[in-house]
Amino acid sequence: MKFTQTKVALNQLVADLSQASTAIHQIHWYLRGANFITWHERMDDYRNQIESQLDEVAERLIIIDGAPFSTLEEFVKETKIKSIEGHYNRNLSDHLTRLIEIFRTLIEDYHHVIDVAGDESDNVSEDMAIGFKGELEKLVWMLQAELGNAPEIDA
């Protein structure tokens, strides 16, 4: 089987994970206020986690004979994560809300990979997506708790 739909879904993740990494880096640069030091370092952790997922997703795509997007132009054209201009006037709540939105987009992407990889009997891609989706759901839960909200995870 050629895993045609799985390749498309994984490449969507490549674009969205690349954009997510950039957006997290932007948050890292534009943070200000109470708990700056804690959250500034936390953004490095989040970015490293996303970069690690990106590398594994792209490598999986190559393994199944796909070609991951690899240029800024491709990432911008294909991503579902909106770019916003950096501003120092955003508070921590604004930044965390944006981060939750980004992670929710990635969760949706992983959910789609789970569906199509399952349909195409690509158990390795399916398993990888299940693990990464779970990691991001945990981050959403924690960020939502920081904002005083319930997780609101649609599993």
The chain-level structural class is mainly alpha
Taking all residues together, what is the mean pLDDT? Answer: 96
Indicate the radius of gyration in whole angstroms: 16 Å
What does the overall shape look like? globular
Count the helices. How many? Answer: 5
Low-confidence spans: none
Helix content: over 70%
In short:
With 155 residues, the protein is mostly helical. Helices cover 74% and strands 0% of the residues. The chain contains five helices and no strands.
Task: Please tell me about this protein's structure.
The chain has 155 residues and is an all-alpha fold. The protein has helices at 4-30, 36-63, 72-78, 92-119, 123-146. Helices cover 74% and strands 0% of the residues. Helix 1 runs antiparallel to helix 4. The two termini are 28 Å apart. The model has no long low-confidence stretch (mean pLDDT 96).
List keywords for this structure.
about 160 residues, mainly alpha
Topology:
Layout: H1 4-30, H2 36-63, H3 72-78, H4 92-119, H5 123-146
Helix pairs in contact: 1-2, 1-3, 1-4, 4-5
